[in-house]
Amino acid sequence: MSRRIAALLALVAGVCAVAAAAWLLLGGGDDSDTPQATLTAFAQAWSRGDDAAAAQLTDAPVAARRAFVASRRGLDGARVQVSPATTTETGDRARARVAVRWAVPGFGPWTYRSRVALRRVDGAWRVVWRPTVVHPALDADARLGTRLFEEPRGSILDRDGRALVKARPVMHVSVHVTRRGPDPDTTAAALADVLDIDAAPLARTLRNAKPDHYIPVITLRLADYEDVADRLADIDGVSLARDDAQLAPRRGFGAALLGAVGPATAEQIKRSDGRLREGDEVGQWGLEATYDTQLAARPGHVIVVRSLEDGSEVETLATRRGRRGRSLRTTVDLDAQQAAESALDGVDGAAALVAIQPSSGDVLAVANRPSDDAFDRAIDGRYPPGSTFKVVSTAALLDNGLDPSAIVPCPPTATVGGRSFKNFEGEAAGDVPFTTDFAQSCNTAFVSLADELPADRLQEVARWFGLGVTAKDGARTASATVPPGRDLVERAASMIGQARIVASPLAMAGVAGTVADGRWRAPRLLADDPRAAGTPLDPQVLSELRSLMRTVVTSGTGTALADLPGEPAGKSGTAEYGSGDPPPTHAWFIAYRGDVALAVLVEEGSSGAGVAAPLAARFLAEYDGA
Questions:
Q1: All structural domains of the chain with their residue ranges
Q2: Would you state the torsion angle of the CA atoms of residues 434, 436, 438, 443, taken in this order, to the nearest 10 degrees?
Q3: Is the pLDDT at 10 greater than 70, yes or no?
Q4: Least packed by Cβ within 10 Å: which of 39, 145, 527, 552?
Q5: Which homologous superfamily does the CATH classification assign to the domain defined by 334-622?
Q6: What residues contact residue 224 under an 8 Å CB cut-off, 6+ apart?
C-alpha cells in the first residue's frame, strides 16, 4: 500500500469518528434508550432485589412495586435471577421473553418463562406493567406464595415389623374466644370437668385472649374423644379439628421407652443448627428423641397463587416432595409389650418390668409406672438389687467349691465385722442346706460366707452376668455398678446385693438371662444393634444355678409362679435403701422360662415375694415367648 493511500484512509477514518461522536452527542445513537437496554436494566434491578428500581422502569411503578414486594415476601424472601431474551421491536412497541429463576427457601430453584411487553412512554422505553410479568398465572388480585405439607414421620416397629408407634387419628379440642360463653371461668370449668384438666390456667388464657382466636385445650385419641363428644358439644365455643399423630396403641403404652413427639421448643431449635424451625414436630424423649433425625420427615413444599385480599390459595404452581421419615425397627415384641403393660396395670407408684430374649440379648418389653412418666426406670434406673444379686453371689460361691447340699445355718441374725444382719421380718430356717437358704433367700446364711471370697471376687463374677461390663463396638450395656468390698462388713452386705451395689432392672433381667442361656449377651434394643456376648458359664456352676433358681419357684419365695407351665425359675429380692428403722425397701423379682427372662421392680414395694413375684407371674401367664 502506498503512503498516499494509507494517509487517505486515515483521514476518512478520522472524519467518520468525529461524525459518530457528534451523532451520539446529539442523542441519535444512545444504546440505553432501546427496548433491549430497558429490559436488561429492568431484569438486573429485579434480580438484585431492588424492587423500587425495577418498578420505575415500568409504566405503572406503584402497582409494579407492590406486586414485586408481595410475591417476594410470599416466597419467603426468595432471591430471583431474571435473564432477558432478545426483544422484537415493532415501531413504538416491543416484546420479549424473560427466564425467571427463584431460589425459594426450603424449596430450592423454581424456574419458568414470562412474556414481557415494552412501549415508549414520553419518548423512553418502559416495561408494560402486567402481573403476568412476575408469573403468567397472576392477576391484579393475586401474588405468589408457599405452603408446606407434611410428609409422614417414620413409625417405630417391633421385631416383626408391627407398629408400636404410628400415625393414629386424634381430635384437637380448642375454644374459639369470641364464640365462648360470657364467663371464661364457666367455660374453663366445664371443659375441666369433661377433660380432667386444670381449669385455672385455661380460664386465665381465655380471659386474656384476643377476639376470634382459637385457644388449644387438649388433643385426644379419637376413641377418647368419642367418649366425651356429646358433653363437649354442649359447651359454647368448643372447636374440633381431626388430625393424625404419632401414637402407641394406647395411652401410656411403652411411653418412657418409645417417647413422644411434640412442637420443638426454643432450646431444641437453637441446638438443631438450623434443622428445626418453629412449629416443627420433634421427638421429646425416648426413642422418638434419640432417633429423631431418622424418624423425622422433611415437609414437602408447594408454590401457589394466593389472593391478595385474604391470602387464600387459588392455584398450585409447583410441588416439591419432602422426605418421608424412615421407620425404626426395634427388638421389642408387641405381644410381650402388651403383656408387660397388662402385668403392671393397677400398680400404684413407681414400677418397672423389662423382658429380654436370653439367646440374643434382644429387649422384648419395657414397661414403666407411672405410665405418663418420661423416666425409663426399667433401663436407666439404678437401684440396690437386694437378694436378686444372690444369683451372682451364689455363682461365686459355687465356683469357689460350695456344695449346694452343704449345711449353712440360717439364724434370725448374724454379726459380721461388728455389724448385725437379719432376715426379712426376722425369719429363720435353722440348720438347713444351702439349697434352702437360696430358696428362702436367707440373708444371714449368705453374709456368713462373705469371708470365703476375696474382696474383689464378686466384682469379677458379676461381669460374667454383664454387671459392670463396658460397652464395646457400639454394643449396649445395662447400667450396674459392683465395686469391691472395702472391708468385711461391706463384703457381707454385697453378698445380699446391698452396700454400694446398684443395677437397673434391665441389668438384672440380664442376670436371669445369663442363667437361662448359659452366657451373658449384651442387650439389644434395635434390630441392627451389634451382638456381643460374654464367656460361657462353667457347666457345673450353670447346672447348679438353674436347679437353685427352680427351687425358688417350687418351694421358696417365688411360688407365685409355681402353677405356670414351662418350669419357670427365679429369684426374689427385697432391697433396703435410705434410712429408717427398719429402712424402706424395693421389691424385686427376676425370672426366666424358655427363651424369655425378665426383671420386675416395685419401688417401696416391701417384699419381692409378695409384691414383685405375682407381677412376673402375670406377665408369663400372658406371654409364652417370641
A1: 35-140, 156-299, 334-622
A2: -90
A3: no
A4: 527
A5: DD-peptidase/beta-lactamase superfamily (3.40.710.10)
A6: 251
Measure the CA–CA gap between 568 and 155, rounded to whole angstroms.
Answer: 34
597 close to 513: Cβ distance less than 8 angstroms: yes
Closest CA to 521 of 573, 572, 600, 595: 595
Which pLDDT score is estimated for 606? 84
Q: What is the mean pLDDT of residues 20-30?
A: 36
Cβ partners under 8 Å of residue 540, min gap 6: 398
Helix (H) or strand (E) holding 480: strand 480-481
Distance CA 244, CA 171 (A): 8
Taking only Cα atoms into account, the Rg of the chain, rounded to an integer number of angstroms, comes to 39
* Overall average pLDDT of the 502-528 stretch: 96
Strand partners, 175: 215, 238
Tens digit of each residue's pLDDT (9 = 90 or more) over 432-480: 999 999 999 999 999 999 999 999 999 999 999 999 988 665 556 678 9
Distance CA 25, CA 567 (A): 110
Nine cell digits for residue 269: 431449635
Distances (CA, A) of 592 to 69, 247, 432, 595: 70, 31, 26, 7
Of 249-253, 297-301, 328-332, highest mean pLDDT: 328-332
CA-to-CA distance for 249 and 244, rounded, in angstroms?
A: 13
Bridge partners of 104? 108
Look at residue 17 in the predicted model and tell me its pLDDT.
37
Give the pLDDT band of residue 13 (cuts 50, 70, 90). Answer: very low
Cell numbers placing 84? 432477558
Is residue 29's pLDDT more than 50? no
pLDDT at 24 over 60: no
E-assigned strand segments in 87-213: 88-90, 93-104, 108-121, 124-127, 142-149, 156-157, 163-176
Provide φ and ψ at 508, rounded to 5°: -75, -30
Q: How far apart are the first and last CA of the chain?
A: 104
Is 575:590 a contact under the CB 8 Å cutoff? no
Question: 398-404 — which CB contacts under 8 Å span 24+ positions?
Answer: 398/540, 398/541, 398/544, 398/545, 399/461, 399/538, 399/541, 400/452, 400/453, 400/457, 402/434, 402/449, 402/452, 403/434, 404/433, 404/434, 404/435, 404/438, 404/544, 404/547, 404/548
Q: Is the dihedral of CA 385, 386, 389, 393 positive or negative?
A: positive
The Cα-based distances of 361 to 339, 506, 513, 596, 626 in angstroms read: 19, 11, 8, 10, 12
* Residues in CB range of 329: below 8 A, 6 or more apart: 157, 159, 161, 526, 527, 528
Q: Determine how β-strand 142-149 pairs with β-strand 124-127.
A: unpaired
Flag whether the pTM goes above 0.85. no
CATH code, residues 156-299: 3.90.1310
From CA 402, how far away is CA 20, in angstroms rounded?
118
Give the pLDDT score at 138: 97
Q: Are 601 and 377 in contact (CB under 8 A)?
A: yes
Q: At 230, list the grid cell.
A: 356429646
CB atoms within 10 A of CB 548: 24
Residues 465 and 514: beta-carbon distance below 8 Å: yes
Tell which wins on pLDDT, 601 or 282. 601
